[in-house]
Amino acid sequence: MNLHPFHSNFDLPNTGISPTKTASCASRISPRCFAASLRTRLHSCLHSRLRARALPLLLAVCVSQSLLGCKPAKESDTTVKVVASAHREGEEQTLVVVAGKYGFIDKTGKTLIAAKYDDAGPFNDGLAAVRLDGKWGFIDTTGKEVVPLKYDATGPFSEKLALVESGGKYGFIDTSGKEIVSPTYEDAWSFNGGVSVVRLAKKWGLLDKTGKENIPPKYDDIWTFNEGLAAVKLKLSEKEPEKWGFIDRTGKEVIPLKYNEVDYFRDGKAKVKLDKETFSINKSGERVAP
Fold first, then answer.
1. Which is nearest to 191 in space by CA: 175, 176, 167?
2. CB 240: neighbour CB atoms within 10 A?
3. d(CA 141, CA 127)
4. What are phi and psi of 25, to 5 degrees?
């Protein structure tokens, strides 16, 4: 199964366990099968201790993948195989594969879009990612190619913008196909809460939906946002140790970068380590009881 990139800047669930890796673990998701994509996401982005807590979910995902039969069909197989369904305002578009090609049918089995694509994802906000001859684009429910098939990879639309990749660089398009951000970044996450985490010259920053950099890439690491704040890491010089602090979605450093270690905020508190002392702080950076 071919996977296409989808980087997600999602808020971390309250698991009680702090992962050891953050922005650099970019998710990889296949549009073809939800079960396979979730399994991929669990394996690629979550810390091993988190995965241990997620094993029941992972097992259920694997079972559902087996039941759905999320494997590419053989070229000689003309059986219509259902891959995914999308329901919207009483309408239904079902992604199917016939002889190794992807298309869509309605709930009665009538062909909506002929099975001609090499790969495809389910409809999301009226658009579906499709691949032909190695290039990705988007079609609408009538089969019109709204976004030309010219990208090496695409992600689903999130907050009306989709992540695209061309020549190893990442950018964003809107639902009309207009490039809001041309593919220039080394890495990027899908928009969440009005911002995307992006990387350039091995440094991380924040991008807003207009393409403006709320924070030009300057941090060595950025964690996912949780309770409105994200931990950031910066090493000022080779002689000084790396320091951690927190930013909000506007890019403001609301808690100075002075800590040796930090954890995610949960219920308004985060554990931090300063020199050899570990304690809790609130969102103003004030020391509080655990």
1. 175
2. 9
3. 7
4. -90, 80
The pLDDT tens digits of the residues spanning 77-131 come to: 566 777 766 555 545 789 999 999 999 998 888 999 999 999 999 998 889 999 9
> Cα separation of 125 and 163, whole Å?
15
Contact 4, 216 (CB under 8 A): no
**Structure token pair of residue 18:** 């702090």
**Rounded-to-integer distance, Cα 290 and Cα 286, Å:** 12
Per-domain boundaries in the chain? 4-225, 226-290
Number of residues assigned to the chain: 290
**For 38-59, how does the pLDDT look when each residue is reduced to its tens digit (9 = 90+)?**
333 333 333 333 333 333 433 3
Report which DSSP code applies to 34. Answer: H
The residues that bridge with 200 in the sheet, in sequence order, are 203
Nearest partner of 191 among 6, 25, 8, judged by Cα: 8
